[in-house]
Amino acid sequence: MRAAILSLLAEAPSNGYGLIKTIAAKTGGVWRPSPGSIYPTLQQLVDEGLIEALSEGRGTEFALTDAGRAYVAEHAEEMENAWNAEPDSADRDFHQSIAKLMGAIHQFRAGVTGEQRAAAVEKMDELRRALYKILAD
C-alpha cells in the first residue's frame, strides 16, 4: 500500500478517493483498496514526514515532502514493484472474496436492527478466530 501511494503521489498530488480510483484503474480493478486501508496509511506517511496535507477537511489532497521525494528516489525499485506484481488466480480470488465480504459488511452500517448487528458481530468474531486458527496451523 505504502509503495503504491508514494509512487502515485510522486506523479501528482491526490486525495484518498483519487488514490483508490487510480489504484483500481492501474490494476484493472483487481486491487481496489478500501478507505479503511488508504486513510490510515496516508496518516502514517504524514506522521513519518514523507507526505503532507495540502488542505484541511473533506477531499484533502496530499503531496510528497522533500523527504518523501528523497525516499521515493532511494526506493525506486520498491515503487516500481508495487505495480509489477501480476496477481495469480489465487490472489485474485482472495481479493475478490474480501471485496464480497466487505460489501456484505457495509450493508450492516445502516438500516439493520440491533439484533441483526449483534448477530453479524458474532459471526465476524467467529470468522476472525477461524482465520487466526488457519494461520496458527
TrEMBL record:
The keyword DNA-binding is assigned to this record: yes
Residue span, Transcription regulator PadR N-terminal domain: 5-73
Record's keyword terms, sorted: DNA-binding
One Gene Ontology term of the molecular function aspect: DNA binding
Pfam families: PadR
Cited InterPro entries: Tscrpt_reg_PadR_N, WH-like_DNA-bd_sf, WH_DNA-bd_sf
Keyword Ribonucleoprotein in record: no
PANTHER family noted in UniProt: TRANSCRIPTION REGULATOR, PADR-LIKE FAMILY, TRANSCRIPTIONAL REGULATOR YQJI
Name of the featured protein: DNA-binding PadR family transcriptional regulator
High-level lineage: Bacteria, Bacillati, Actinomycetota, Actinomycetes, Micrococcales
